[in-house]
Amino acid sequence: MNKIKLNRKLLALLIIIPIITLAFGPAHQAQCLAEENGSYQGKAVSLYKKVIGGSEFQSYIDLAAKQADQFVQFGMEFREPQIWDAALSIAVNELALQHELSKHGSELKVTKEEAEAFIGKFLHTEAEVEVFMITNGYTSKTDLVNTIIKDLEYQKLFLFKAREFKMEVPEAEVRAELERITVRHILIGFTDSDGKTLRTSDQALARADEVYRKVIAGGDFEQLVLEYTDDPGTRATGGVIGPMSLADFVANMVGEFTEGALALSLGEVSKPVKSQFGYHIIRMDQQGTPEGDQYLAEYKEVEDELLFIKVTESPELNEWMDQLFKEAREAMIILDPALRAYRLSNQEKWAEAAKYYRKALKTKYYAKKWAVYLDAANAYLMLQQRAKALKVLEKVAVEAQNTSEYQDMLQRAHGLNE
User: Fold this and answer.
1) What whole-number distance in Å separates Cα of residue 333 and Cα of residue 9?
2) Which helix (H) or strand (E) holds 274?
3) pLDDT tens, residue by residue, 272-329
4) Do 99 and 48 contact (CB within 8 A), yes or no?
């Protein structure tokens, strides 16, 4: 009967991930042979006196691969070098944010205990934590806690920037979130959950009037819910909707239901209210805001949540982050020869790219990465060096030679006149 919104805090953290990880440009629809060659080896990049490599860079590769998977439904496929390059962008973006955080000392730090308390607000049992970890690819509770620490620190950083930008949230918006509402209802529906007609509008109204009279006569509301309601989502809870903020209530409920509920005083029961779903008998169980110290504490918490969402949608933050990431790209030193060669190729600096591809193919990690051989061959072909391209292609594993990408590259090489 109603739509359920994400909790603002969880929504806030979900906003951070695309900001940091949106690393892919236009997709190249190329076939990609899956390669299992172990975890990343070597050093990938150096920035702000920190070197990223080994298993740490592998985690960025995994994140980039997971992001790329989201495009599969649109018929897009990414070659492995694109995944590595995206991982490099994610790593550099994150290093830039970490560097910015370091300028604030302990002011924006989040402790392990704070992260665990945050998790506990939404995942109440170890079983729920376990399911969440499995669903979202966390290998351990420590991994989850560390991720939450990082995300909460980013949230603090963005809130700092919001106030620096002189952003504010109107008091009315905060109060609308603070005001809590709980209602109970009995739905006399027109159709069942499968869309099959249960009764006509007149029949539904007659039945709703019957239920209303029983409630007014002192009937047990929860018992009447069990006996009459056609809302499967609230039958087991006695018809309860809430508690939720007034803002969420207005946003999530159909208009007629909202109007009918908000017209009630505490404990009052409505006459049948018609909506697209049927007729509702609504009882107002709770409406109001916290008081005293609780109000002040919750006001600040809600204000921060709304301000965070506001700043992440602002052009000011986008411009600041664009500049932050631009400075990081200019300051980074790419240590991995294949990663460096790939970016040089994108800049059409073919001679330099070929030099770094040669270095990459001498390393143990890239020795079996056939996509790197193809990119190296492409660099040679762009330099009109067919013999070198063919020599590289000869070293590609037999199973990769059956791919259309390899065959296309081979055909290009044979068709080139040096």
Assistant:
1) 36
2) strand 273-274
3) 999 999 999 999 999 888 888 888 888 998 999 999 999 999 999 999 999 999 999 9
4) yes
Give the residue carrying structure tokens 């505490």. 266
pTM of the entire structure? 0.72
CATH 3.10.50.40 range(s) for the chain read: 181-288
Q: Which architecture does CATH list for 181-288?
A: Roll (3.10)
Q: Where are the alpha helices (DSSP H) in 41-104?
A: 54-69, 80-102
Nearest to 235 by CA among 1, 3, 36, 53: 1
When pLDDT is averaged across residues 44-60 and rounded to a whole number, the result is 96
| Among candidate residues 386, 379, 375, 374, the one with its CA nearest the CA of residue 416 | 386
If we measure between CA atoms, which residue out of 105, 18, 108 comes closest to residue 70? 18
At position 119, the amino acid (one-letter code) is I
Contact between 252 and 241 under an 8 Å Cβ cutoff? The reply is no
The amino acid occupying position 232 is P
Helix (H, G, I), strand (E, B) or coil at 107: coil
Among positive and negative, which fits the CA dihedral 315, 317, 320, 321?
Answer: negative
Architecture of domain 336-415: Alpha Horseshoe (1.25)
Measured on CA atoms in the order 84, 85, 88, 90, is the torsion positive or negative? Answer: negative
One-letter amino acid identity for 321?
M
